[in-house]
Amino acid sequence: VAVVISDTEMWLSLGSLDFARGSSGIEVVSKNFGELDLYGRPKFGGVDHVAHEIACAAALLMGQTAKGIPAVIIRGCQYQRSEEGISNYQIDLENVREIIKKIIKCSIKTLGLKWLLKILK
C-alpha cells in the first residue's frame, strides 16, 4: 500500500495547496519526460510530481476547513512502486544550475534548437 502524507501551505496564487510532506511505496516523480502524449508529441512540460498531485486530489475531499476528514483512500490510481520517498527528491540549491542545464539539454534534444531560439527572443 502506498502512502502520501500532506500538509496545507500558502502558494503564489494567493490560495492554498496541499503538498506531499512524506511518502512510502510510491514513485514520487514520474519518469515519463519525453514520452509521447495522446497526440503523438513528446511530453516536455516537465516531470509529474505524483506525490504532490495525489496530495492535492486528496485535499479536495478532506477540505481546508473544519470538515474533519483526516484521511482519503484513493483507489484505481496507477503508480510505480518505489522505496524512495520525498526526501530523496529534495533539490539541493547548489545543484540547481546543473539541473536546469539538463532540462534545457533534454528539451532541445526533444523539441529541437528552434524551440530554444523562440524562448530566447
**Rg over alpha carbons:** 17 Å
Strand content: 5-15%
Average pLDDT across residues? 83
Strand order of the largest sheet: 1-2
**Can you tell me the CATH class of the largest domain?**
Alpha Beta
Distance between the amino and carboxyl termini: 48 Å
Largest sheet: 2 strands, antiparallel
Q: From N to C, what is the helix and strand string?
A: EEHHH
Descriptive notes:
With 121 residues, the chain is an alpha+beta fold. The chain has two domains: 3-90, CofE-like (60s Ribosomal Protein L30, Chain: A), CATH 3.30.1330; 92-121, no CATH class. The protein is built from three helices and two strands; from the N terminus they run E-E-H-H-H. It has helices spanning 50-62, 96-111, 113-120, and strands at 3-10, 16-24. A two-stranded antiparallel sheet has the order 1-2. Strand 1 (3-10) and strand 2 form a beta hairpin. Helix 2 crosses helix 3. The longest helix has 16 residues, at 96-111. It is globular and about 50 Å long. It starts with a strand and ends with a helix. The mean pLDDT is 83.
